[in-house]
Amino acid sequence: MPSYFLMMKLTDQGIKTIKQAPGRIEAAFKAWEKAGGKMTGFYVLMGEYDYAAITEAPSDEVAATFALALGSLGNVRTTTLRAFTKEEFAQMVKKLP
Q1: Would you say 78 and 67 are in contact if contact means Cβ atoms under 8 Å apart?
Q2: Does residue 35 or residue 49 have the better pLDDT?
Q3: How confident is the model at residue 35 (pLDDT cuts 50, 70, 90)?
């Protein structure tokens, strides 16, 4: 299954309702699994981003749909990064001319 890093920044709404964030995070884990994915890690960050999730999804479309749905709730803005394993990277490099 493809891997993704989901980087998130709190919105004004998200910080105003930060006490509800742990419940929202648990709901996101369940929604990701319902979509056929797997969240393998979740972190609260210091710096440019407030949260990061390491995830797997059946397809880019599933990952993008989830990120759009999450963003539409208004608590975070998302940046989704497709991540390739070192084995996938090695296969890509082998195909170079």
Answers
A1: yes
A2: 49
A3: confident
